[in-house]
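Lab notebook, bench 4. Continuing the backlog of folding jobs that were queued last week. Each job is logged with the same field layout so the records can be merged later without manual cleanup. Today's entry covers Alpha/beta hydrolase, a 213-residue chain. Filled in by technician R.K.

JOB TYPE: sequence-to-structure
TARGET: Alpha/beta hydrolase
LENGTH: 213
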Amino acid sequence: MKIQELVFPTAWDVNAIFKRFEKENAATLVVEFPGAHYSTELPLFHYTRKLAFQFGFDVLSLEYGYQSARLKPEMNDQLIESIVTDLELAFNTLDIQKYKQVIFLSKSLGTCIAGLLDERLRMDVKHIFLTPIAKTIPFINEHNCLVVTGTEDPVFTETERSQISGARLLVIDGANHGLELQDAMKSLEVMIGILEQVDRYYAELSGEAEDQE
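JOB STATUS: finished
OUTPUT FIELD FOLLOWS
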């Protein structure tokens, strides 16, 4: 496997560094969109990335400009727009068209960013939304996607969950916004359950990619 660091300018006057994991002749690309304070090096991304490798997928791990600058800005529409604009410019320089299938794997703030970028790029993207936020609901309802959230997530409660239609929804009892429980061992069991769902989703999408050949 070839691992590359790709450097792109951002609105924060620093370069963002994307990490690309490439296998020869991969038909599918998984793009990882971090949360506001949840990087792609943390467990939810680390283990789903390993699953992607098992299926022979390429992976592109993103970083936002404010993260590169080590800033903690206010989370608002202006911030989201700046991030999406940066990513749109970056993606226009990447050779994405060579893939038969692209999967956006996103968490929290990243779920909204992934949905907006999908709109801008006008690509046929599949989505896995981990701990989405309210702004992501319209994008969830537009796609046959996998959504994972917890009953104790304060930013995506039963009110938000009731607005979802058509998606494959996994709601983990007692899990917080990090999809963790207070009990460490039970948190590991939760992680296994999430990976099983992602594994099934990847298997289905892998079959779709083969059908396109």
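OBSERVATION: Residues 36 and 74 are 10 Å apart (CA to CA).
SIGNED: R.K.
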